Each structure stands twice: as C-alpha cells, then as structure tokens.
Sequence to fold (333 residues):
Amino acid sequence: RNRDSLVRLAEVLGTFQYKNQSLQAWREASSFDLNFEQKRRFARVLLDAEAFESAIVQLEAAESIAQSRDERQQILRDQITAYSESGRLAQKIAQVANQEPSIQNRLFLALLFLADDQLLRAGRSIENAVARSPDHVETLVVAAEIAERQNRWFDAIELYQRLKELDGRFRTKYLRQIVMLYRDLGDFDKALQAASDLIDAAPSSTNSYQIFAEIALTLGRDEEAVTALRVAIEYAPRENSNRLMLADYLASRFFTEEAIELYWEAMVHEADWKRRRDLVQTLSPLYERRGQSEQLLRRLERFGSDTKDRHQMQRLAASVWQAMGDPQRAGFI
Fold:
C-alpha cells in the first residue's frame, strides 16, 4: 500500500457510504506525506465525522504547503468553514482580533466576520488590510466582495477596476463583475463599454458577445448587438446559445427567413430530443406566418433522412401537427 492507493480506497469507500472504513483508510494514508489537495479532502472527511480538531490540524498543515494565491484563498475559506461547523467561530474571531495587526490576519479576520454575518466589522478589518498594502491582490478581492455585500457598488467597481490592472490572469473575471454591477445600477452605457472591454480581453469567449448583445439591445443599439452575435457564431459555430439569441431577435423583427435558417442550424447542432422538439415548435408559427406549414413538414422529412433517425422525425412531425392545432393527425403519426 502507498499513499495514492490508500487515498483511492478511502474515496471509493466514501462513495459507497462506508464512512468509518473510509475514514480509517484516510488515516492510514495520512501516515504518508499527503499533498495539498489530499490534505484538504481529508479535512473535509474529518469535518463530516465531526473530528473538528483533527480537521483543523490538517488544514493548518495544508496551509503550510500552499504555493499559489488560489491555494491560499482555498485554505483560508476551508479553515473558516471548519471553525463555523465546529462552533468555534466566535472564539477564533476573538483570537485573531487580539493579534498584532498584519495584512494576513486582518484579511483572515475580515473573512471570519463575513462568515459570522458581521458586515460592518468585516469592512473595517479589510480596510485595515488594504491600508497596509493597497496593491495586495488577495486583500482587494475580499474588499470587493465585502463592498458588494454592503451594496457599496461604486466602491466595488473601483476595486475591480484596480484588480483588472493588477491581476491580468483574472482580468476577464473582474470585467464581468464590472459589467454586472453597472447593469444592476442601470448605467447601461458604462455596462456596454465594460462588455466591449470584456470582448477585447477574451475575443474567443462567446459568452462575452452575448452579454454585450443583451446590453446593446437594452440601449436600442440593435445593429451592434446583431454584429456581436454574428461574430460569436463564427467563433463557435457548434454552440447554439448565441445563434438562438440572434434567431429570436430576427423572428421578433419579422426577418422570418433568416430566423428560420438559424433555427435549422441550431437543429443540426442539437442532439437532445426535447430541445429539438422545442425548436420545431418555435419554427412552426414562423412557417405559418408565411403560409408554408407543409414546407416545414417536408424539410423535417429531409432532415430525418440526413440524420437517419426516422422515429425521432416522426415525433417531431407530430409536434408540428400539435402546434398547428390538429391533435388527430399528431396522434395518427
């Protein structure tokens, strides 16, 4: 037996709810040198077993080998969960509050206050940490989170603006937050500019185009919305979300022919029967609008020949007759 085989055994036993045996296997595995993620998982098992002291020891050991900012943030939040579940949150708050102030312990204290729903004190603690190091990314992330929780949205935006310059790895994440905050504030012009920045930062992320299009449509800037959706479709032709948004828009503006073609493209890229049925039911009134319901049935037949799934096409044809108000013919199919 070695560390990794014991960890796998522990997790398999846990999956089948053999909790005591799983815990025993974890304890054996811990006699070896567990890595960071394994220590976190072992701590979670210990918390579930209400072995709180042992869980906290494992988390402290994981903290000592954390190498990245992400790992440090994970372990801080895991520790707070442990103190909360063990009923020791107030005790830990008092302990950390009495320590000589530093960036790390004021950050930790702010997170502890957050877990205890003490927003005002959390805000004061994080302000203390930010004052000690205005460009400390981990501190600014928590400061922005607290500002949002306190409904100080302009402060949160300012913090995310700083973060996107300081922490380029997560620039798109911060820009998304800025977009959402401006949108929630009703400042759609600034939200649109932030969404444009988001596209520039991650041009291959098609969700960014959809965000931009939604805001552009709210502002009545339809052409920009349509252009953004077309670009997104070019980037990811197999993804349907932007295609369907564009099709819905065109259908609502009576650009019926192009909307129909986009819905058929979506059919090609959609494998789920229920979603295909929904698409057919969306197509039905568009064909009716042009007095061409029979053409929809013929095209469905050709589509069935291409996909070689006759049974599914019969079901889809039945849904067309149902949508057309002819349940008798739908039932016959």
Q: What stands out?
A: The mean pLDDT is 91. The chain is about 80% helix and 0% strand.
